[in-house]
Amino acid sequence: MPTSDNQTSMPPQHQNHQPGDEYLMQPHPQSSPKLLAPGTRLSQKVALITGGDSGIGRAVAIAFAKEGATVVVVYLDEHEDAVETQRLVREAGSECWLVSGDVGSEKFCKEAVQAAIDKCGRLDILVNNAAQQFPSSDIEKITEEQLEKTFRTNIFSMFHMVKAALPYLVSGARIINTASVTAYRGSGHLLDYSATKGAIVAFTRSLAQQLVKHEIHVNAVAPGPVWTPLIPASFSAEEVAKFGTNVPMGRPGQPYEIAPSYVFLATDGADYMTGQVLHPNGGEIING
């Protein structure tokens, strides 16, 4: 992906010995990038985060705020959690706006993006993070209503949000999607959820190819088991007590341990990455 500091091709040249001399190269390789100092890496940027009221979304909102970004948090109806996220983002030194509604609705996604533009005047980072899951160990028990609801929230929303945001995203903008380790290893009791997460990986890779000509970076994060409200809302008390103990690290991750992956993908450090997936998953090897 070309940037203002990099050529798309190099002039022809050859050296007659290995491993070669850097001082003879034209142009010289750039070893010291023009990166902003920590704490300012997202200064003057505006980020919209779906599912930003709690869990990974909240941690990403706080982490972005600590790097100087203004944050727009989109959430369903968890108003108390959203207000707390707003307080924490402001405590970190940035402004935070709240927008409530169902990301499964294309109409609402357009309204959410427009609200961000109206409040902040621009949009630089879109984090598609909202998701839901309904455990079932039997495909015959997955109703048409559940299937549609899971896909509408988890993957249709990403299409809607990107379509709404794209007119405002310029060169260097970032789209970051939340996938899951289940996209790679599967999950027998989260069949429809895992299917949406696999779709998100394909969506990320395909959208990256489509938008590379506009110098818009599209990447994803595929967390392993993370301690978020989705867990007690999905599983029995007995299952929750064992949650995350099957990964090599023997425990679930905390949202703050996942957020740095999003920060990296949002900043200049990821300038040469698009169509990729990061895997903060407690040590599972998924070969993806």
From TrEMBL:
Keywords: Oxidoreductase. It comes from the Bacteria. InterPro entries: NAD(P)-bd_dom_sf, Sc_DH/Rdtase_CS, SDR_fam. Residues 1-18 have a biased composition (Polar residues). Residues 1-35 are annotated as: Disordered. Belongs to the short-chain dehydrogenases/reductases (SDR) family. This is Short-chain dehydrogenase.
